[in-house]
């Protein structure tokens, strides 16, 4: 069979994680309208009878502003070096900018065979899509595929192009495994996802979630203890909301998703904690799994 690892790269918010989820057929990575949603490398596995693709989703590449940003960029370029191919995602409706050009250059330097996905074609005009394919075509990568990660258009073709670049190899993951993320991390991410769509501006970047405790309780309920961590005292109130309204809303929405994931009733115990400057502290970043 054909098998291998594919580094998924692109600017923040172009739809990398949405495409990974569509290709895998399950939500393995959270998505949101906020840039810098993905913070860890997340492996999502595409199973085909003749092939296995391990898509390595990664944080969007951007100008680093702090220790977290630098770490994320290093992570992405490190991933590239260990990959059999790259999937470079562009937004059909956004002009190709210096960020895209820098990524294209790095990809060409790396020598890794690259497929370009022009994403979000569901909300772009035909001319925009054709124009974007033409401009990106100048980079002369292995293949170009217009897709909509949101609607699934072109995803099978995209997978086909990537499979064509894979070497002969074994299946790396068992047939029923779609991601390698540990359960506490998957759960923490589902909680963070609920906050991302409800918070504005800078606050999402200051927020992280850590699951400390997962316990089976008598009667079959799963108890989950988690911390919602923010950087400043002033952010604590925002995250909790008026009379606890936001925390309650996020908790209820996340609980529904986690119950579907685990297949048991869930008691989700969310606490808000302030851990000052967590984005710039190497030890704390290690502890949070970055
Ligand atoms: N209309 C439309 N929206 C899309 C499509 N793909 C992704 N989106 C939306 O674009 C936003 C960003 O998607 P993500 O998948 O989180 O983007 P990302 O590239 O992983 O972003 P980072 O992890 O922040 O780098 C979300 O609101 C998605 O719903 C698409 O094909 N069509
Ligand atoms: Mg992402």
Summary, kept brief:
The protein is of the alpha/beta class. It has ten helices and nine strands. Residues 16-17, 29, 37-38, 57 line the site of magnesium ion (MG).
Please characterize this protein's 3D structure.
- It is a single chain.
- This protein has 290 residues and is α/β, with parallel strands linked by helices.
- It has 2 domains: 2-164, Rossmann fold (3-Layer(aba) Sandwich); 183-287, GMP Synthetase, Chain A, domain 3, CATH 3.30.300.
- The protein contains 10 helices and 9 strands.
- The chain has helices at residues 16-24, 67-81, 98-110, 126-137, 155-164, 183-196, 203-206, 233-240, 245-262, 282-287; strands at 2-10, 42-48, 51-57, 85-91, 114-119, 143-146, 208-216, 222-230, 266-274.
- The strands form 2 sheets. Strands 2-3-1-4-5-6 form a 6-stranded mixed β-sheet, sandwiched between helices. Strands 7-8-9 form a 3-stranded mixed β-sheet.
- A hairpin with a 2-residue loop joins strand 2 and strand 3 (51-57).
- Helix 6 (183-196) packs antiparallel against helix 9.
- It is globular.
- The mean pLDDT is 92.
- The structure holds guanosine-5'-triphosphate and magnesium ion (MG).
């Amino acid at each position: 069979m054909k098998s291998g690892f594919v580094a998924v790269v692109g600017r923040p918010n172009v739809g990398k994680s949405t495409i990974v989820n569509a290709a895998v057929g399950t939500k393995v990575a959270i998505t949101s309208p906020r840039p810098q949603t993905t913070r860890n490398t997340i492996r999502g596995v595409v199973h085909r009878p003749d092939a296995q693709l391990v898509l390595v989703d990664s944080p969007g590449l951007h100008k680093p502003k702090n220790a977290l940003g630098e770490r994320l960029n290093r992570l992405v370029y490190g991933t590239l070096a260990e990959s059999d191919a790259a999937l470079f995602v562009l937004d059909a409706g956004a002009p190709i900018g210096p960020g895209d050009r820098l990524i294209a250059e790095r990809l060409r330097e790396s020598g890794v065979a690259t497929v370009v996905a022009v994403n979000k074609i569901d909300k772009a005009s035909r001319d925009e899509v054709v124009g974007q394919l033409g401009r990106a075509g100048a980079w002369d990568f292995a293949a170009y595929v217009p897709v909509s990660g949101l609607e699934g258009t072109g995803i099978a073709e995209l997978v086909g192009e990537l499979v064509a670049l894979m070497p002969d190899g074994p299946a790396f993951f068992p047939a029923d495994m779609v991601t390698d993320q540990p359960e506490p991390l998957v759960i923490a991410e589902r909680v963070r996802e609920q906050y991302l769509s409800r918070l504005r501006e800078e606050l999402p970047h200051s927020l992280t979630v850590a699951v400390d405790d997962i316990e089976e309780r008598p009667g079959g309920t799963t108890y989950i203890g988690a911390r919602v961590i923010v950087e400043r005292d002033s952010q604590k109130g925002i995250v909790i909301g008026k009379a606890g309204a936001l925390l309650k809303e996020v908790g209820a929405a996340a609980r529904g998703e986690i119950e579907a994931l685990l297949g048991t009733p869930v008691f989700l115990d969310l606490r808000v904690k302030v851990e000052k400057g967590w984005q710039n502290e190497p030890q704390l970043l290690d502890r949070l799994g970055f």
